[in-house]
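User: Sequence in, structure out. Go.
Assistant: Echoing your sequence, followed by the structure tokens.
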Amino acid sequence: MDSIKRGVAEIIPEDDLVRKLERSIRLNKPLKIKLGCDPSRPDLHLGHSVVLRKLRQFQDLGHQAILIIGDFTGMIGDPSGKSKTRPSLTLEETHKNGESYFDQATKILDPKKARMVYNSEWLNKMNFAEVIRLASKYTVARMLERDDFTLRYKAGEPISVHEFLYPLAQAMDSVSIEADVELGGTDQKFNLLVGRDIQREFGLEPQITLTMPILIGTDGTEKMSKSLGNYIGISDSPKEIFGKTLSIPDALLYTYFELATDVPKEKLASIKKSLDDLSVNPRDVKRELARTIVRMYYSHEAAMQAEEEFDNIFISKSIPNDIETMKLSAFGTVLNIGTLITEVRLAASKSEVRRLIEQGGISIDGERVTDFNAAVPLKDEFIIKVGKRKFLKIQK
């Protein structure tokens, strides 16, 4: 329980979890630990790793991890935490987005102790009569107890009937695999509790609900999100992970160590003591966090190299040795710098390039770019720098 409770927001009910664990040990039968995975955004970041690390802790204690890829529920669109209906996806889109999820998740999980299933396996087989019977097991009043539904209802925002089916469909996942414990973020609490109720309706022992805090992004204010650009991807390069970690606000350092790393409890206590000590520079703790995260997803050597490269770029103001090189001829006739930067994918869109230029975030051979439509330099080669960490050598 000491291991399981680390960083947890809530366990409902905790006493029942203790009983399930005791029975599991007595019967030598692993518990089924369920985690539903959203296939709409397949690129995982440290925010996703918080609950995946908790799932890994259950694996290390001898239990079975079950990842449920929500390919069918992705067609509904989970409205949790949303102020309006989330656009739904086709089954083909959810399958395409879910293909890389397991490979990324097993950077954290033990693949030998993990099982992955798609919830279309059982939800796609339900006929309309079965859906109606399922819907009859929950009331509209109970659905409207959910905060986001309540707020939208009071604000006169539309709530589609199909959105009420999402928590019921997620609950059927728990019924189908007979989950003992379901993990999720605090924003999933309502859905996880519906799972308990629906399991009970089907004559099963209700699952334990275990929620984890939502990890704040590198901006220090918003939930970590790729769309907001405040994320650290678990598939990012070592130098990207290191650099992004150093941008985390000091106030979040302990939280990141607790939720996004596997440092032992004694080390956590030491880190907390260091952060409370005014003589300790938080920058040193931040560097330790950056090394720790890179080491977790790559290696000790990669962490040391990423730190050395960061120092070379930002302290010595030098250019990294291993920057990628591209041929200008590969892009045909490029009319201007803005278009070139978009074509080589150093920025996601032309609008992002314009924003970066306005902020002084783009330079060529050390000279700041001030005009999107500036001509491409007439040089045999030149180096483009975008933001703080992106470099690209262009050759004719």
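User: And one key feature?
Assistant: Residues 324-395 form a domain with the Structural Genomics Hypothetical 15.5 Kd Protein In mrcA-pckA Intergenic Region; Chain A fold (CATH 3.10.290.10).
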